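Morning F.,

Quick status update on the modeling queue. The single chain you submitted on Monday has been processed. Sequence for confirmation:
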Amino acid sequence: MSLILSIETATYICSVALSDGDRIVAMRETNEKNAHSRLLTIFIDEIFKEAGIKASQLDAVAVSEGPGSYTGLRIGVSAAKGICYASDKPLIAVSTLKALALAMQQGAADGDLLIPAVDARRMEIYTAVYDPRLNELTAPGSVIVDESFFRNLPRHNRIIMAGDGAAKCVPMAGATEHIVLTGEVHPSARNIAGLAWLKYQQKDFVDTAYFEPFYMKEFLAGKPNVKGLQ
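Structure tokens below.
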């Protein structure tokens, strides 16, 4: 048994899951905005009660590390650290973008590019580019969503975009045949759990005392640097 509590609060979604290996045991999730501080601890308590366990019985705690909402990330990371300190358990940090890309895998074919998009400010998104096997083709960055962004994406690949930032892309990419926009995929603790299980097996833990969320501050405009795809 390998019990991992996974927390996702990087966006407007507040999501908590308890997993045993690659199986979800219990889960709570809401898309109610600005509810993280009110509901996160309630969700955690409910999951422990449903599973009949205490924090001391966990094997690890996983948290979405960002990029995303400053406030949301602080709430999630603070809760995760608190449980780790109280129960002396290791902390696992999972990329918000990679977890979102994991949720986008279904229906993706070889050659497709997965571009998870997390809403930033104004016409900006936090994003990275992955292949269907979740290999990272570009490092996470902040991108201004404009015509040049779409014009410079590879045209011989089908582009799949999802996440709460994808809505910003509709006016400029909606009529482009090789770009598929979906609003049905969102960050979830279910996907944090999937990647956390792999990291747990590799003992890929972070230092609880010094870990900080991944705050994106650089803003990149123009051509994504996807090696070998241009």
